[in-house]
Amino acid sequence: MSESDLPSLWTHEPHTHLEFRPGDKVADIDTSATPGFKGNKADAPTLQAERNQRFADLQEMLYANSRSGDHRSILLVLQGMDTAGKGGIVKHVVGAGNPQGIRYTSFGKPTEEELSHHYLWRIWKALPGAGEIGVFDRSHYEDVLIVRVHNLVPPEVWGARYDEINAFEKELVDGGITLIKVAMFVSLEEQKARLAERLERPDKYWKYNPGDIDERLKWPLYQEAYQAVLDKTSTDYAPWHVIPCDRKWYARLAITELLIEALKGLDLSWPPADFDVEAEKKRLAQA
Ligand code: AMP
Ligand code: MG
């Protein structure tokens, strides 16, 4: 791994604070905390802009390497209840990258066609290609979250999916995909405030869905379902990160660092020219 360029406002690489540890309880998450960050909200805009640039540079390097045969890619999996801030991560963090190398997919209620296939069918189709950063706004984990909470399939069916997901993700990692799994948590109080804002602002109606209140009322069941996800699908090759999201600025900074760390872990450098640079300069001068 290359030398750390972590900004001094972080006490440690964020993943050391955010990685789920066996025994951690969803019920105990302090959603307003800012683990590992010494600064405050006032520090966020400048730092976010700097780190967005760092992310963008590394993303370009990843993409550049794919042009010379490097098949590796990154997949950011965003899971969280409504209003947790998934869209904000897409817009303010991933959005700093070059769209040419970003593969974004949001997973909603499956279509008729999707339902006629295995639940991983639509996931396979959305995986990032060589040099890309894939972003899943919700994911295959909905098939053990909303599906479990609403009994959309019998318990023995969703119950078998945890092992299946682990095996699937192992295959992805072995195939050169670095997975960054992020579980985003807001307090019920903060969620209420964010839903209320959506109802106050015509520019936010599009984000509101009356069903969000029904899901909110099922939070205790979701809490159990998230706990099971974290307990059963945190692996050494694809660990979960638990992100407190009451402070959007913190969640964005933290997830930006997770992306930067993952990119740096690939030990990238600019691919060398596959042509004779000096000869080309001479040719160009005469052209
Ligand atoms: P949103 O992300 O706000 O656009 O909402 C998408 C909705 O689709 C959420 O309520 C998800 O829980 C739901 N959803 C996503 N995947 C599935 C799935 N596999 N089965 C059923 N519902 C799903
Ligand atoms: Mg929604």
TrEMBL record:
GO molecular function: polyphosphate kinase activity
Transferase found in the keyword field: yes
Residue runs in coiled coils: none
Xref: SUPFAM superfamilies: P-loop containing nucleoside triphosphate hydrolases
Keyword annotations: Kinase, Transferase
All residue ranges annotated as the Polyphosphate kinase-2-related domain in the record: 51-264
Example GO biological process: polyphosphate metabolic process
Superkingdom per UniProt: Bacteria
PANTHER family per UniProt: POLYPHOSPHATE:AMP PHOSPHOTRANSFERASE, POLYPHOSPHATE:AMP PHOSPHOTRANSFERASE-RELATED
Protein name stated in the entry: Polyphosphate kinase
Organism, as annotated: Mycolicibacterium moriokaense
Lineage: Bacteria, Bacillati, Actinomycetota, Actinomycetes, Mycobacteriales
